[in-house]
Automatic annotation (TrEMBL):
<feature type="domain" description="HAMP">
    <location>
        <begin position="347"/>
        <end position="400"/>
    </location>
</feature>
<keyword id="KW-0812">Transmembrane</keyword>
<dbReference type="InterPro" id="IPR000160">
    <property type="entry name" value="GGDEF_dom"/>
</dbReference>
<keyword id="KW-1133">Transmembrane helix</keyword>
<feature type="domain" description="GGDEF">
    <location>
        <begin position="446"/>
        <end position="579"/>
    </location>
</feature>
<keyword id="KW-0472">Membrane</keyword>
<dbReference type="Pfam" id="PF00672">
    <property type="entry name" value="HAMP"/>
</dbReference>
<dbReference type="GO" id="GO:0016020">
    <property type="term" value="C:membrane"/>
</dbReference>
<dbReference type="InterPro" id="IPR003660">
    <property type="entry name" value="HAMP_dom"/>
</dbReference>
<dbReference type="GO" id="GO:0007165">
    <property type="term" value="P:signal transduction"/>
</dbReference>
<dbReference type="GO" id="GO:0052621">
    <property type="term" value="F:diguanylate cyclase activity"/>
</dbReference>
<dbReference type="InterPro" id="IPR050469">
    <property type="entry name" value="Diguanylate_Cyclase"/>
</dbReference>
<protein>
    <recommendedName>
        <fullName>diguanylate cyclase</fullName>
        <ecNumber>2.7.7.65</ecNumber>
    </recommendedName>
</protein>
<feature type="transmembrane region" description="Helical">
    <location>
        <begin position="324"/>
        <end position="345"/>
    </location>
</feature>
<dbReference type="Pfam" id="PF00990">
    <property type="entry name" value="GGDEF"/>
</dbReference>
Amino acid sequence: MRLTRLFALTGAVLALLVCGMLGRLLWGEWEHYRAAGSGHHTLQLMQRAMIAAEKLSFERGPVNAVLGDHVPADPAYRARLLRARADTDQALAQLRRELAAAPVPAALAGALPLAPLGRLDQALAAARQTVDQLAALPPAQRTPERLSETVERMFRLVPLALDAVTGYTRASEQVYPRIGRILTKARLTVELREFAGRLGSALTVPLASAQPLTESDHERLQFLRGRIEQLRQLIKIPSGDIDTEPRVLAAVARMDQLYFATGQRLVTEVELASRAGRPYGMDTGQFAQRYVPCMSPILALRDVLLEEAQAQALRDFQDARHELMLALLVGAAILLALTLLLLILRRRVVVPLLRATRAVVRLGNGDFSLPPSGARRDDEIGDMLRALATLRANSMDRQRLEQERLHLIEELKVRADTDYLTGILNRRAFTAAGNLRLRGASERNETLAVILFDVDHFKSVNDSYGHDAGDQVLIRIADVVRDSLRDGEIVARYGGEEFVVMPACCGLEAAGALAERLREAIASEPLTLSDGHILRVTASFGVAVAHGPHAALDDLFHAADLALYRAKHNGRNRVESQV
Ligand SMILES: Nc1nc2c(ncn2[C@@H]2O[C@H](COP(=O)(O)OP(=O)(O)OP(=O)(O)O)[C@@H](O)[C@H]2O)c(=O)[nH]1
């Protein structure tokens, strides 16, 4: 796999892993944040439902007062009843608005008892109608049965509202278990308030009719007291930090003092008066005026608990939002760091490595055009690039040396084949070339000729003008002969003042003619020495040919040498051919 692809793949896998981890973290924080938000909302719904239940309980007080009064009822009692009804309607309307404004999460919708609210509306309208009808009757016609039935109808309203409270409490506990215990206590206080109200209402009929309590009334009072005490104990069961909160402790103490001491003593007084056959000394309205305020600490305790739960939910909501923001920031920082790390790795490692690889490949191909960059870096990549630069310099040196060596070999080769004085081929090179040509001529069944010539009286040139002048004569003769030859014809210095020519391909006659032309060229060319002297020299030529598969170069030379000898002997400056 290519390095770039491996790097891209590694980067993608790393990014995926980090994104997965961050996604998991963010999802957890988001869930926490949402749960805290939902908990906060359902808590508000629960509070609204509790207030509605409380208002329904309150409404019973003015109802009892109106039903216990004459016709028309005391306008103050009537006004209280209307105010209580308006308060109840307002509380229910607020609960509905709250529900409509910010619906609870779909998962909880089933847990929220919306149906009881509809039933409550119908039951409330019917109960109020019954109250109004009974209040319109003269007190004598308000039989205990009708009174207790009407009061019972009012009683039945509260459980419907409490159903909603219970539903919202469960929903709150479900989405937000942290405040579940506080909410349970709050719900118990609502129930306690309801039973406290019922305890008071149980005295409505006897007080309204100024009749003693029946055994059934006593039993009912007994039952309600038991349930109230039970609820009181349940509320006091320790359930965590909330029980040590000073505000909660103070609210519980006030409830004990005002309701469980004063309020219940009032009920006991009525009971004792009934048993002793004494008048009660108060009607229903007067009883309610003394008893109802004693129940307010119960609701105060509920409010304190709810405020604590709200505060806790708000704190958690803010904490969750803070945590979510922090997780988002940390996530963004991690992603940024990863991206930067990958970019730095790419820039500092991968790209230099790829460049170095390209440089090495080019070096291998003898191309030094890409100098490795970044050799100043103080790290391993820098070490590698410096080593690469050294390798490149060494390779360049080696290539230069190799070129010099080849040049030298070529030069040596030329020198080995060249006569140092005249620059034409020397005897060794001529012999090699001659053997090659002779072999080729034998194969093709052709004739090969050789012309051997020697400068006449050369010793006297040396003697008369000096050795240097002799050298100049030899150089000049070589030039003259070389200029006279055609392609494929070679000339060599055979030794001393003796030269040899090999024509391209010709017989004895043509070689003789060539020798004659060369002789004439030498003889007719005046040679000007460096000191200004002008010389004319001649040469004698011997021509011989070889033919056939067994021809040897030595024999050919020997034959030419014999012919040359004859040319010398016959007067010099002439051409003699093999006989
Ligand atoms: N200047 C010079 N002289 C050379 C060189 N090689 C040989 N000689 C001289 O050539 C002369 C040859 O002389 P000889 O063999 O007597 O022949 P010649 O004087 O040419 O007489 P013939 O060949 O009989 O015509 C000698 O004096 C050699 O020293 C050379 O490279 N340079």
